[in-house]
């Protein structure tokens, strides 16, 4: 990884040196684009990896269309690259790239570049139909360590279409979440005030008068919190490149583990507590977080809806080499397709999902919300109540 990083930094300097000489598309290809493909180990001198002027005709629309470069892996095209001259803006050329992308079902990623900026696209909204917006933009005029880490996923030996699609989906979600968060912090509205007040649990009843009173206080608290986070972030030791500690699995012997005083064989692990915390956050706004309750047993950990043992959202079996999550609903083919796209696998029998770490539950939002809806539907529990009533009648002789 360090060698790859050094090559990218050298390429940045190369662009600064020769970029202004690239006045035509062909010069840009030879001086900037092909060297970058070579850094990604897609050697332009190997026709098994890179083919120029690759045929990409969309039936019934245009004939004899050719994309500038098709990148190949295991004998199949996996990525298209459309080239523009160094000084050309990329804004108005996505339609041409989309035609190439849509014509070839095996291709999962398409890119357009002028040598110094790269825009990467995939098909999150409709299968085999290129999205209008790129999931990743990388500008070599301002290359960051995060950009380098993301570009590493496009190397020949690391190119995994399913993982890139999952990465693209997470990038889109992250950008949308960031926009919402920034909007909330810039313009603190009443809904945000109510959210903060409810989480703080300082006010019993949020009347309009109370909301008007605490709104300016929360606005100042938001400003102070942001300032504190900025200062803390600047003073904190730098995170080494190519590490992601926030995604590291929580050790099972963490000090956060909690033993049940009434049964020492029941130990709620840090991973189980993390799972509960994540689910509370995921479902917040749909249900009250207090209605999402964790319950541990000797065999598994359960997250319940409203604390009712028969209304469980997920059962987590973490005491094994591959932790498993079970759900009260039958996993449909649509669920299974989504699970695979997000880089997760089914457990034995197909009714469970392997969770390598608690954070992976965030990739299963469709399953989680369907499980919650099942728990909220009283009709799913009518038979249970009717059976109980029949037993009572039999016992009393009625």
TrEMBL record:
It holds the Pfam family HSDR_N. GO terms for molecular function: ATP binding; DNA binding; type I site-specific deoxyribonuclease activity. One of its GO terms (biological process) is DNA restriction-modification system. Keywords: Endonuclease, Hydrolase, Nuclease. Transmembrane segments: none annotated. Residues 63-125 form the Restriction endonuclease type I HsdR N-terminal domain. This is Type I restriction endonuclease subunit R.
